[in-house]
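As practice, study what follows.
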Amino acid sequence: MKRKKPKILSCEEKSILTAYQNKEYYNCHFKENIDKNIEISDTTFDSCIFTKIDFTNIKFTNVDFVDVIFEECDLSNKKFDKQLLSRVNFKNCKMIGVSFIDSSLKDTEFTECITKYLNFSGAKLNNVLFQNTSLSEASFIETSIKNIELDNVNLVGTEFISSSLNGIDFSSVDINGVMFDMYSLRGMIVDSFQCQYLVHMLGVKVKE
């Protein structure tokens, strides 16, 4: 699967507070945390890098992210609802309880992340990678899923409801403890061992 990488040519190191005050969110490299609460709204972060940023004091409202890299950041409980994320990479980030409800994620990667309790309900995922990532207790409800790759992903407690998984390869991940409805199961790719779990989950008894 080919994913487009973030297009970042050169970035000026800048504090988030300075960018917030000047409304400048283009070609920036943010490394400095802030100790006051701010709300960033109605804008787009374009060609930016966030390194070791704790977003506890930062609220996003109607903010899109295009060509952005998050490295070793804490984004726990942040809301990206109804927003666009295009060519975005999350690397070694803590993302517990992050919400992507009704959002659009394209060419986006989650690698080496702690991503428990993610909510992708109503979202559109296209060309998305989850790699070496704990994705447990996540919700995919009425999610549009196209071309996603799962590589060494923890899915315990995750639910796929009314979300087509046609053509999605689950053969390399442990699906024990995952909840699927009948609609979501159609066309998904599994191995022979995973078939046994799915049969058991559906309450079907196999006569030996």
